[in-house]
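Tokens for Pimeloyl-ACP methyl ester carboxylesterase. Go.
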Amino acid sequence: MATRCPVARISRILACVTIAAAQPAPRPPRRVDVDDVAFRVISAGPSAASAALPPTVLVHGIGASHRYLSRLHATLAVDGAVHSIDLPGYAGLPKPGRDLPVEAMAHGLTAVIAGLGLGPVVLVGHSMGAQWVVEAAAQRPDLVTDVVIMGPVADAAHRTLPAQLSALALDTLGESPTVNGIVFTDYLRCGVPWYLAQVRHMLSYPIEERVAALDVPLLVLRGARDPIAGREWCRALRDAAASATLVEIPRGFHVVQHTAPRAVASAIRALTGRAQVTA
């Protein structure tokens, strides 16, 4: 029987050790209140003053939190400042006492970025986070250098709640147990009432119209097997924008930033002028 070569496994371990060793000490999360709603900011990487790259802001999707962005966050933080933002009503933050449509959430997001002096930033959103970052960039282009939308919703091919739930169920079958564990425990923290309040905004927000209003470069990124953000839909978003690129990550599903963080980070760095992640 042939002996399995351990080189590939050792290389993966060394890559993880390299990323971990390159990380500065983590900073404590910060709660930021905007009017009557609370955000949480998790930061890592070199200071903006010492970094050669613009800061990157990561925004989760509906029901989720910074946790499924953590691998991408750590990879990008090797050579640039990174800030993951938990939004009101998610990740254990207090549920707002009022409705927050996409425009209102984006307004709060820009207030956090401006209030902390983070901008201009590369603004990255996943799933419904794509809607929030596109709207934020349209509202405050002075705060944004580039926009990245990963697995953007809501695909015109299934823009109803039953169709979205069906696509989510299909994606769940392809995701790793780790991804599913993170996502569904975050859904439990979010709760059904807040999820349903937000999903109606997700289904009605015209992201294909709003990307056309962007005057900064746009990267549309999807996992090649993502059933939630289909290929034709992502092509349509790319074509609607003034300056846009579409990147597909082979074998990736919807939460591709967790399963292939280095590939996703490389695509983001290519947009911002660095073709490869240094770690």
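Residues 7-22 form the longest helix (16 residues).
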